[in-house]
Amino acid sequence: xxxxxxxxxxxxxxxxxxxxxxxxxxxxxxxxxxxxxxxxxxxxxxxxxxxxxxxxxxxxxxxxxxxxxxxxxxxxxxxxxxxxxxxxxxxxxxxxxxxxxxxxxxxxxxxxxxxxxxxxxxxxxxxxxxxxxxxxxxxxxxxxxxxxxxxxxxxxxxxxxxxxxxxxxxxxxxxxxxxx
Length: 180
Prior knowledge:
- The chain is α+β, with helices and mostly antiparallel strands.
- It is built from five helices and eight strands.
- The chain has two domains: 2-67, lambda repressor-like DNA-binding domains (434 Repressor (Amino-terminal Domain)), CATH 1.10.260.40; 106-179, Jelly Rolls (Sandwich).
- Helix 2 (22-29) packs across helix 3.
């Protein structure tokens, strides 16, 4: 399982290899240098949308940032049960990528596990997002609204609105598919 510190270190190495200063790189990805430095120093969780922006700017596959290696499959990539690329973003929040070996995917499918009591920061990114609850119950924050979902329920939404998922009554696991 990969952790935030490893991902942050790869981002820093890639930025330095590309000869960008912190200030230049932050400006290119559309955030302040202070906020960018917090991400690069693993002081703050990196939103998945920002990871996509960084990989796009560097013209690399997001799997290089997440797992330290690039994707190799163009036609089909199989992920056997429990064998996806796992990332622990922070205590109580992890996800498993289900397409980490597919080159230039248009969708990002992941199985996310959240412990009860963990409130992720609201995030925004381009595209659309689909969440399907596999286990437990979730409270979905989306814009000014809240939705309550249990195993078997799903939601499809515009990801440009601030959003987050919160486990209720115990840990929750859900499939998310994000359009890039």
